[in-house]
Amino acid sequence: MTNRSLNGAFDVAFVGRANIDLTAQVPHRASPGRTTFASSLTTSPGGKSLNQAIAAASRGGQCCLIANIGDDRWAHQITAALAEAGVDTRHVTLLPETTTGAAIIEVTPDGESYITLALSPATELTADDVRCALDALDARAVVVQLDLSPRPVTTLLHRRPAPIVIGNLVPHPDLDKALLRHLDVLVVNQHEAAAILHTTNDDPLTTAAELRQLGPHVVVVTAGAHGAAYADSHGSGQVPAPTVPVVDTTGAGDAFLGALALDLARYVPLPDAITTAVHQGSLVVQHAGAQPVTNE
Length: 296
Known about the structure:
Layout: E1 10-15, E2 19-25, E3 42-46, H1 48-58, E4 63-70, H2 73-85, E5 92-95, E6 102-107, E7 113-118, H3 127-135, E8 139-145, H4 150-159, E9 164-168, E10 185-189, H5 190-197, H6 204-212, E11 218-222, E12 228-232, E13 235-239, H7 252-265, H8 270-284
Parallel strand pairs: 1-4, 1-8, 2-6, 4-5, 8-9, 9-10, 10-11
Antiparallel strand pairs: 2-3, 6-7, 11-12, 12-13
Helix pairs in contact: 1-7, 3-4, 5-6, 7-8
């Protein structure tokens, strides 16, 4: 099953990582030298780009994922989830004799998630991987994980493979920050923004304006329960988030970005697209796991 349009064009292509999430509910995080007893371990498909692609597809988007995974049982769980969601997987490559990456996620009673990503170096995208996928790509928007190694990101940003190029996450330390001027939209959360700017400013509106000075045409800063702020050439603004019960924040930012990218690809005005994205993020935090619940 794919969610591809009849004319061959995708709304959004997501470039980055797919992995398996190993999640446990914990009463609190373990202190040094102590053990915390947790719930039973659950395994589910995850990874920033995978979550974003499924979030966009769940809203009817024609989406594809560009990522590498190992040829193991976790990979087959991942590809099955993508197929069920309607995400095109022709650029998801299974690498033989390679292990799929895993995220170890602890979720505390307040719904906060603490994530450690165990990368599988052999599955990291290369410049050649990106170049080959882009040569066959027809998409209105492309979302790229900026924390990938510099060469594939540089290849993508120089090629500008779609009318809208969106970057997400803190850029890799070795990525030339001047390349951020090739981004139409930069989307980060408050913690990522602080890491990029080397500040402790907790005002997302001010932070968005400061990040624009690095070159992106539009900057969106998500602020959890406080919604999101944005800045572009026309000014700036904030979108509040609804007050909802929080069960698990894992994947909320990915649901936000998947919704935002899809709406921007369909020419929805930025403030309206952010409003919808904030709503989608608020839905995800109300249940366990990173994937959207489509019947909400």
